[in-house]
Structures are given as C-alpha cells and as structure tokens.
Specification:
The chain is of the alpha/beta class and 219 residues long. Helix content is 22%, strand content 25%.
Length: 219
C-alpha cells in the first residue's frame, strides 16, 4: 500500500531518530522516512520536524535537508517520563562510527549490538518526553510520526497519550520492542489506532498504524 497516492494529507512530518538522513553510507544512503518525503510533490510538504540527539550526525542531516527550508532539526533525545531528567547520557560504541546508528540513552541497547567488552563512550544531551515535544512544535495535524528511538521505543510509546495527539499515521520499529511487544500493540489499539501494514523502514522493520479518527480511501 502506498500511503501517498492520495492528496489529502496535512503535509506535516516528524521523524524521531533521524540519524544522517539519506547520507549514511553504511546504510547505502537510504532512509525510508527521507525517501518517502522527498518522493512527494513539493506542494505536499508543509513542515518537516527532525529529532536527532547525536551531535555527530547533525552536519550530514543538515545537508540531507538543505533544499527543504520547511525542515527543522532538534538536537534532543526522546525519553519516557520515568527517566525524570532534563539531560541524559547518550551512549555509543566507536565501532559504530561514523553515524552511530545504535546510539541510545539505554547503555544495554548498545552492548546488545556490540558486546559488553565494547569501549562505550557517551555524550550528554537534552531530553524531552515525546508528548511534550510534539505539543511544543506543532498544534496542527501530523500526517506521519516515524519513531526509531534505539532501545526505548516501547517505553516511549507506552508513555505517550496517543489518543490525545493529532497524529494520523504512526510508524515505529518493532524489532526492539522485546517483551513489551504485545503490551505496546494492545495499547495502540486502546488509543484507537489500527495496524495496517509495514511502515517507512526500507528493510521492513517498522509497523504502520492509522488513527481511526481519520477517514482515508483505505478504510
């Protein structure tokens, strides 16, 4: 299913965990969210909100979106309320250079990929809850919210009142939900979201959910 064969979306897109966009050579210069938005006619794109906590990725991310003045980059991490701080350590393994795709506020997430013997390094970054961040950056309908939060996806989703947010499509990585997977999926159902297929990740690692409050040609 191609989400963008129709023309009635708001044109506001948010990506949490933007990385280096489509300029990461280790990912063959591919990023599903970026490819999707850049595929659209320019008149369909009103606002692109990018969240990336790793300062090492910002130069390439800025270059990725340099032809889109409607884009903005926010150098913050997204965490659940239980973390209880305004800044946290972002952990990464030097072996994950140059773009540190598995950098995370969850140290064990990095160790899961690179082993406990990896010489973990860290940088302190400001953090916010997803719900608070969204309410700060826009009060308009969000056509697509894409999440790739490296190790805290389940915690963030369960911490967010999606039934109170104006998000139409939600795409999120399912491979790191762990033992919380079923709880996350039940929670989204209670928030009136319906599973409709694969999300934006080009490897097929994302689930896509649709807010049932929105009428579409596919419902």
């Amino acid at each position: 299913m191609n989400l963008y064969d129709y023309k009635n979306g708001s044109g506001i897109f948010i990506q949490v965990g933007a990385g280096a966009g489509d300029l990461d050579k280790r990912a063959n210069c591919r990023d599903g969210f970026t490819e999707l938005v850049k595929y659209l006619p320019r008149e369909r794109v009103k606002k692109i909100i990018l969240v990336e906590p790793n300062p090492l990725n910002i130069p390439l991310l800025s270059r990725c979106w340099k032809n889109y003045p409607e884009s903005s980059i926010h150098e913050i991490g997204i965490v659940p309320a239980s973390y209880g701080k305004e800044a946290m350590d972002l952990y990464y393994c030097p072996l994950d250079a140059p773009h540190y795709q598995v950098a995370s506020v969850n140290k064990s997430h990095v160790q899961k990929h690179y082993g406990n013997d990896c010489d973990i390094e860290k940088v302190t970054v400001p953090v916010k809850r997803l719900e608070n961040f969204i309410n700060e950056v826009t009060t308009e309908e969000i056509e697509l919210l894409a999440l790739d939060i490296e190790g805290v996806d389940a915690e963030v989703i369960l911490d967010t009142k999606f039934d109170e947010l104006n998000v139409k499509y939600l795409s999120f990585e399912h491979s790191h939900l762990g033992h919380n997977r079923d709880e996350v999926l039940r929670y989204l159902e209670r928030c009136n979201y319906a599973f409709i297929g694969s999300g934006v990740d080009y490897n097929g690692f994302d689930y896509l959910y649709l807010n049932r409050r929105f009428k579409t040609p596919f419902m």
